[in-house]
Amino acid sequence: MKTLGKKIRLLRHQKGWSQEDVAKKLDISIPAFSKIETGITDINLSRLEQIATLFEMSVVQLLTFNDTQEEQKFASELENIHKKLTERETEVIDLQKKVIELFEELRLKKVTA
């Protein structure tokens, strides 16, 4: 069951949902959903159908979902997000430098005035 839990977690991440979001949609507690994702709790058929419906899949699709391809896709998306974040961090640092330079210019103008 642990592989099913991993698939559910991967699907949840792809949707951008938290465990709390999914637990509310399934009308269960967050710890109960966490146990499903970690494979601690076996999933009965009705819960499996509920989860499949939530992710807009059939039960068969959920059970046969190829997580290797999806993990690669997720890793690629994560890499792109990391790249964008690094670019934004560089932009922020450059802007901070400009603010410091402008502050120094103002300070020097006050001193000479």
Automatic annotation (TrEMBL):
Residues 8-62 form the HTH cro/C1-type domain. Pfam families: HTH_31. It comes from the Bacteria. The keyword DNA-binding applies. The keyword DNA-binding applies. SUPFAM superfamilies: lambda repressor-like DNA-binding domains (SSF47413). It comes from Mucilaginibacter defluvii. Gene3D superfamilies: lambda repressor-like DNA-binding domains (1.10.260.40). InterPro entries: Cro/C1-type_HTH, Lambda_DNA-bd_dom_sf. This is HTH cro/C1-type domain-containing protein. Keywords: DNA-binding.
